[in-house]
Amino acid sequence: MKKLFAILLALMTITSCNANESDSPQSAPGESGAYFNGKKVLVAYFSWGGTTRRMAEAIQSTTGGDIFEIEPVVPYPSEYTPCTEVALEERDNDARPAIKNSVENWDEYDIVFIGCPVWWHTAPMIISTFAESYDFSGKTVVPFCTYAATFRDETLQKIVDLTPAAEHLEGLGTTGNTSGVAAWIERISAEWNASHPDSSVIAEIRSENIGGTTLFYDLNGLPVSNPEAQKGIFIARDSSGTRKIMR
Question: Residue 16: pLDDT above 80?
Answer without folding.
Answer: no
